[in-house]
Amino acid sequence: MPLDVRCAVPDDAAAIREIARKSWHAAYDPILGEETVTETINQWYALENLKASIAESHAREDAVCLIAEEADEPVGFVHAGPHRDRPAVASLNRIYVRPDRWGEGSGTALLEHVQDSLRGEYDRLYLAVLADNEVGVSFYESASFKRIRTQDSDLKPEVKEYVYTKPL
């Protein structure tokens, strides 16, 4: 079945939260622990805040929030917008696909769509991923992102993140 990528709307918030919940637990429980993952999801994906974030992205020309669906079933999402410190750089804030769909091309399709949407507004795309997240690291490196540094994560002091960038 073909994958449909469209702009997310606030009514997509519950589906986006569920995709994030499944993806975070699959990728990050071994790294951060189930309790930290659950707390982070509850904080970062609170439905009212998520709805507001989606609406704000929809109203801006310099931000984008997309959802991927197959047969009207949400399988992934991406959110990107201006980097807080660099005007010519977009920050890839979130990109997640349901774990049962990893490796099937949904993430790649979302990434291509977000890059196409941001090209012209920004020169580069920037992101951080937990260094021990092998699936995420492999995904970004296969998509030609260049690792520029390693930094401490805000999620846990002993956890490291890789920072990547890619020209648009």
From TrEMBL:
An example Gene Ontology molecular-function term: acyltransferase activity, transferring groups other than amino-acyl groups
InterPro entries from the UniProt entry: Acyl_CoA_acyltransferase, Bact_Acetyltransf, GNAT_dom
Keyword presence, Acyltransferase: yes
Domain N-acetyltransferase stretches: 3-168
Keywords of the record: Acyltransferase, Transferase
Regions crossing the membrane: none
Record flagged with keyword Transferase: yes
Name by which UniProt lists this protein: GNAT family N-acetyltransferase
